[in-house]
Amino acid sequence: MTQKQRQIIYGVLATAVVVMFAFGGYLVYRQQDNGKETTEKNASAPAAEAVETPAPVPTKDPHLGQVRSTMTGQWIDEKIENQRAFAVMINNIEYAFKNQMGTSKADIVYEALAEGGITRMMAVYQDVSGVKKIGSVRSARHYYVQFAAEWDAVFCHFGHTKYAVSKMKKLKTENVSGLSGIGPVAYARTNTLVAPHNVFTSGSMLRKGAKKLGYSLKKKGTRAAHFSFYEQDTEPASDKKAKNITIPFSNYSTCRMKYDSKNKKYLKYEYGQKHMDQYYKKQLSFKNVIIQLVDESNIDRNGYQTMKLTNNSGKGYYFTDGKQTAITWERREKGNTMEYRDSSGNVLAINPGKTYIAVYPQSRKKLIQVKG
Fold this sequence. Notes:
Elements: H1 3-42, E1 66-68, E2 75-77, H2 78-81, E3 86-91, H3 94-97, E4 108-115, E5 118-125, E6 134-135, H4 142-150, E7 154-157, H5 162-171, E8 175-177, H6 183-186, E9 188-189, E10 199-201, H7 203-212, E11 228-229, E12 244-248, E13 254-260, E14 265-270, E15 273-274, E16 276-277, E17 282-283, E18 285-286, E19 288-294, E20 296-298, E21 305-307, E22 312-320, E23 323-332, E24 337-341, E25 349-350, E26 355-361, E27 369-371
Parallel strand pairs: 3-7, 4-26, 7-8, 11-25, 19-26
Antiparallel strand pairs: 1-2, 3-5, 4-5, 6-10, 9-10, 12-13, 12-27, 13-14, 14-15, 14-18, 16-17, 19-22, 20-21, 22-23, 23-24
Helix pairs in contact: 4-5
């Protein structure tokens, strides 16, 4: 074989090798490309990761199991609202005034003339059970029997007039009398004060006495409307300021209310002193003050008072948040209904809180002093 033939054969072989390598590279590329295409086109998209939505947390009702009190308009336990109220006659002559106890725990306080220029008070408790000391307790008057009936309250007293006894019989008042057989159960005298100003009681004693007499400790019926309540503190739309209120029941007894702008309450004074609850060491204070003007007179030679409340109406004043507004009132003996109304004739809306009611002689209206 010649040199030239060898060169030709070597050239052909080299060309073949180059072609083979090129073709092999092409095949590898196609396989890779096909694999990539298959992967991209045929592979399923990754499944979306499941995200758990947290269950909504229910907002806790802050007043669950509570209702608005018919006495104060504040939120209280429903069981307390369904309890029977207790109304207790409180001695308020100056000697007893200095030793009063449990009055700061009352939800409603009435004050009116009794006789001889002295006043007597009636403390109304929506929940008397926790009050450790109440007194001193004194005798009943017939108009206080009416006030107690308006609240469907067990009426508690130590002594009475014949007019009070007559009214209790007429209204079928369930009462705990210290002069009855239940007296030693419901009341006790202290030897640190002179009689008859030394009779005291407690919430548990009164409830025990009422239970022994067979009285229901749950509300028997509906309470008189008296007033409605704003949901929150509402200042009256009045231009009459009332920071200091003077209520002169007589030359002997004068009630004064001074507005505490910080706590938005009226602080009570009498006999020129702070009106204190000596057991709980608190001055009596009220969110609402009502002066109910009534026709008042002596009922007999003893000087006992009477007031024209039965099936009657009249005028008065309402004070709250340092403001004064004019009101009217109407009472009906049937059903013991009692309503205070605003100048438009609607049931009076008052602020949530405790209320003081001065049942005051119409004849002494001009002696009331209100200062801004």
